[in-house]
Amino acid sequence: MRITIACVGKMKAGAERDICERYLERARKAGRSLGVKAVSVVELSESRAARTQDRKAEEAAALLKAIPAGATVVVLDEHGKSMGSEAFAQKISSSLDQGIGDFCLVIGGADGHGRDILEKAQIKLALGAMTWPHQLVRILLAEQVYRAITILSGHPYHRV
């Protein structure tokens, strides 16, 4: 399986990028024993459309192109469901057990997701009621992917 964080917007060099990459690298190394072949980020350009609905539609179309066919699609959405780390790990485990080749976590643009990407999602995930900057969301997701892999592999990183 390949795990991808697909997001609208680009993260500049600096501390946030370094932290995100550190968790992605840990996830890559720890995931090999579970059959996780890759853990990566795909960055897409923000739409420059004048109207909000047009921006959301354009960004949704770009995100849909970045998602491999047959992938489990997890969309970050303020109206989504919150879940604990162990439940999130079980979502990844379920996809692995079903032989699904890709698990995609999708972060929309500043205006949120377009309808088409929301309809494609099997899981709508909220990281709580607060609004977070996109850079921090990437770090949080990268850390949770690493944490999920350690939970599934029995590594002591996650303590109950």
Blueprint (SSEs and pairs):
Blueprint: E1 2-8, H1 15-31, E2 38-44, H2 52-66, E3 72-81, H3 85-97, E4 102-107, H4 115-120, E5 123-125, H5 134-153
Parallel strand pairs: 1-2, 1-4, 3-4, 3-5
Helix pairs in contact: 1-5, 3-5
Keywords for this entry:
160 residues; alpha/beta
What does this protein look like?
The chain has 160 residues and is α/β, with parallel strands linked by helices. Helix content is 44%, strand content 21%. It has five helices and five strands; from the N terminus they run βαβαβαβαβα. It has helices spanning 15-31, 52-66, 85-97, 115-120, 134-153; strands at 2-8, 38-44, 72-81, 102-107, 123-125. It has a five-stranded parallel beta sheet with strand order 2-1-4-3-5.
Number of strands: 5
Structural class: alpha/beta
Strand order of the largest sheet: 2-1-4-3-5
Number of helices: 5
Brief summary of the model shown:
The protein is of the alpha/beta class and 160 residues long.
